[in-house]
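Journal club prep — side note

Before the paper discussion, L.F. wants everyone to see what a predicted structure for a comparable chain looks like in token form. Sequence:
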Amino acid sequence: MENPQTRALSFTSLAHFVNDGNYFLFPVLIPYYEKIPQSSLIGLGSVAIIYNLINGFLSTPVGRLADRIDRDSLLIFTGLFLNAVSVVLFALPFIYHDFLYEFVLIGAIILGIGQSIYHPVGGSILSFVNSREKASSSMGINQAFGSLGRAVTPYMISAVIALIGEFSGLGIFAIYMFLASVVTFAGLHFFSRRNFRRSESSKENIEDVKPFSHYAFFVYLLTASVFIRSMFMLGVNTYIPTFMTDIYHSETVMSYVLSSGLVVSVAGGPLFGKITSLKGGKFTILLTSGLSLVFFLAFLLTTNIIYTGIAYAVFALSAFTGFPVLLGYVNFVVPREYSTTSNALVWGLGSTVGGAAGIGAIVLLLIYLPLRLSLWTMLIFGALSFILMIFLPSKEKVGKF
């Protein structure tokens, strides 16, 4: 068998590319759905809350299931397969207009279940096959493929829709996702946690592993910080495609700006994963949160397409770094025995449920405010999260509170 680290990184990266490619699927479709007579921006935003809530709340049970059954390749296959099914359901309203909300609601539920699987499971695979020192860098490379998926998917969707229409274009996209799920399953079938746990057991037993309660304050404070951070990040990202379409009056221009900015963000995973390895997770999470806050402010202040693209690119570069920064941070502080549970709490409850809460906050704001002013208001959550992260303990101080 080839090097397990290389194989695990290759196929988890493919899975991350496909999984995170669906991150902007529904936000990109909102401008197209708005052309259907009975649609509303508030109603469609409410659907986005649903799949993010399901994603977040299922991440912890998925992590526990992964620990119990040791079938990570099957779990990742299931997640990608359900992602593909959701694309089919999101395509149906373009034929059956009267059932817009029924199809997008069912699609959102399926998407939420599918999206809940990759991050806790993929992060654990990389932490098992790599040493603790190399895990953050490996996650950074892996994150780059997730970022690349987010970057090219909006353009892919807009391009195929422009060429062959909404329903047929999404059908082609779904076929690609079905095929990718099968390839990923075959590529990761070699992995078993018990084999890598045994190979590393002598190193792990040297450490005096304390009970989870010793690390609980750190994990819960990080989860709370990430929750507020994600309220800002995911809340604004859900409506950025609509915001840019309103400014430039073109879904095609929106997709160009969005994809161009997200291509730049591909470098964020390896860059900030390496910084996490060198400088630590607290430094990096403060750096990325500060940059995203400043450049989203710049994004709102301009209507020049060049400046908009540059501001969005730097915002995306720093915002879409959660996988290596957050889970790399957890990997440095929390022992491997608690990594999946901690990953699921920080990523599922903090990042994803927090994101759903952010979308909910914007939906409520849209009842009273226009979209631009609602996005301005979300800067408050970005500032609050940055302040809270200052109080995160260093590794040496964990357990002393």
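L.F.'s comment for the group: Confidence is low (pLDDT under 50) at residues 198-204. Keep this in mind when we get to the figures.
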